[in-house]
Design a protein that fits this description.
By secondary structure, the chain is mainly α. The termini are far apart. It contains two helices and no strands.
Length: about 60
């Protein structure tokens, strides 16, 4: 009786086996790719980049 309950307790205490999920690997790869693209954009643009407003061009004809 005691041996049987000890074996059952050991089975309950063992952690369940985890299966690898291909969806989790795909999500991790997508997250890494997105982070790489965002970091590359920060490096290319940098903190000192400013986008100037375009100058207004006068029309060719004075009356529009």
């Amino acid at each position: 009786m005691a041996d049987n309950s000890i074996d059952r307790a050991r089975n309950l205490l063992t952690p369940p086996a985890r299966r690898a999920s291909p969806w989790a690997a795909l999500a991790a790869a997508g997250l890494a790719a997105t982070a790489a693209v965002l970091m590359a954009g920060v490096l290319v643009l940098g903190p000192g980049v400013r986008f100037e407003e375009p100058t207004v061009v006068q029309p060719l004809f004075p009356n529009g």
